[in-house]
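Note to self: keep these together.
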Amino acid sequence: MSESSTQTPAASSSEASALAQALTSKMNRARAIKNKITSVSMAVGGISVIIAIVLIFFYLAYVVFPLFLAPEMERTTQYPTPAVTEGKTLHLAIEEQNSIAVRFTDQAKAIFFNVNNGQVEESVDVDLPQNSNITSFTTSRLAKGFIAFGLSDGKMVFAQHKYRTTYFDDIKKVVPSLAFPLGETPLVLDPNEHALTHVGLMHDEEKATFVAYTDDNRLLLNQLIFDDELTGDAEDVTYESTQIEIPNIQYVNYLLIDNSQSLLYVAHNNNEVSLIDISDLDDVQVLERKRVVADDAAISEFTFLTGEISLLVGDNKGRISQWFPVQKETGLTLSRIRDFDSQHTTITDIVTEQRRKGFAAIDDKGQLAFYHSTAHRTLLHDVVSNAPLNILAVSPRANTFITEDNQQQMQLWHIENEHPEMSWGVLWDQIWYESYPEPSYTWQSSSASNDFEPKFSLMPLAFGTLKAAFYAMLFAMPLAIMGAIYTAYFMSAKMRGYVKPTIEIMEALPTVILGFLAGLWLAPVIESHLPGFFSMLLILPAGVLLFAFLWQKLPEHVRHKIPDGWQAALLIPVLLITGWIAMSLSLPMEHFFFGGDMKIWLSENLGMDYDQRNSLVVGIAMGVAVIPTIFSITEDAIFSVPKNLTFGSLALGATPWQTLIYVVILTASPGIFSAVMIGMGRAVGETMIVLMATGNTPVMDFSIFQGMRTLAANVAVEMPESEVDSTHYRILFLAALVLFVFTFVFNTLAEIIRHRLRKKYSSL
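Structure:
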């Protein structure tokens, strides 16, 4: 009985121990499962983030990739020149649908034929006066199809080839026609009835200007002024004419009139061009005479680039040069902009695209090349015929072209050339655009003008991105880092409990609100109190230092009434009062120092224009958005420095400031650096503040009084208006890709530096 009772407690203890072990084992297994789940979840989450980032990168690259594809062309068919007995081809053209082409001949025929097989659809005779024949030919504004024949009796026939789309039994058919906008009666350009060896023309809704060179070496200018666009009614038309004499001209090669009808270009002597001002027919002036080809070359082709501003000059050495007039101090001068020299033999024809700044050229060796002027690219260069090529026609959409060789054979080609205007130079180099005085970095993707050329330089956007981030960090870094140091190292725990959450909650403030306040409230306030605002940079520090000096002079029993670590609260009224004083002094200072208007003073004395929504406003607004991020991470890094390091330093005789500088900040430097880099990334990617608080002008000006446009803001502004898969659309994706890569590379370098700092100071 007693033995049994003595064993019972032992058995109970053994059972309890076994039960405890079982519970412990069960808890360990549960803990292990939880740890495993947590570990797998974190791994899956991290990998998912990496995969998402990689997918974003590849999607951006996928959209951007077509910009860099090389053009391709393929011959579709070949056939004899349609109606070859009707005369030699003077001009070829293709209509919009790539269905019908037209061939104008030296027998005054307009032969419309099927593009795909050469079958003649219609032949139209151009009525010429009796006893006259064609002595010259010209075209104007290819998109509208205007042509003109110069005749042997001093007259000109002005016509237009047009196309109308109709449907018969649901089958689309293109019906061609030849119209005469000024009537079928030929225009008399030379009353003396001499043959017109060369003619040129240009027109718009208000007037038409014609120029002709006669066989007796006279240069004639004729102008028609009318109220309505050319409609076929030639009544009530004002007629003006004049003659121009250019000395030392052996013979004229080509005549061209620019789109404003104020400049005439005369190519003569096989190598020279005279620039003539014809804006006033009563006072025609020869502005300049310039050689446009090399000493060993002669002009073989001379035409306008699309827009009728730039000249394309081809020579018998295969070189093509682009020229346009530039306004300089000495006046308007014809400037050589760029050269193309891939063909090396006589250029026989140059045809420009109707909607882009591209052009094609053929030569007497059967070679064809496609170029883009602004991108300064040779897009394609190939031999397309064994015989010399004479005539070339490019469709309005620039996806089809026809060539005719000297054996009366035509070839039809299809070309894939979606983004010819794309090149490294267009994106990142200075480009000399038409009507600009010099090369420049320019972003201008849209315009109301029909002669507009898109300009896609990313340099102003990248510059604006870095500029906005620079001024934001210039404002945010000192305040955030110094505030974090004081909060973590000097401030009392209770006050820190109020300050830190208050600043951190600012991070949740929508940036659109900050941008709204910056654009509609802060910008006008700064503009109206500009001297006072800058005086704050002196008055606020001076006020703080003065208060600190007076505080030290107070009796100790007064100073000790403020608990240690709460002294910073006393600076709040000091900052408010000194700020109010600075703003109150703004108007008197502006009248006394700047003659009543600081903005005008800056412009007249320093050459700095003032824009209300400028970098200063953006820097303050973005700085407010960035401060919570930098402050929070920096404060955590400093507060996490082990206390034993601080106490050890103080115990060895270091002052609190020495301990802060040589121990605490060095130990926390990886965290501080991370805070700055994360804040920088936030500033670089910011959109709404820049969008609302600046003028959004893509200019490269480091002035604090000028605005900017960032990559992110540009994507946000222009993406809704861009055409899907257009060059503009893909370049916006390229801008996003540049921003993505920039942020990735920047953060990677920051992480490498952070790890090196951590390794260097981990031994402290």
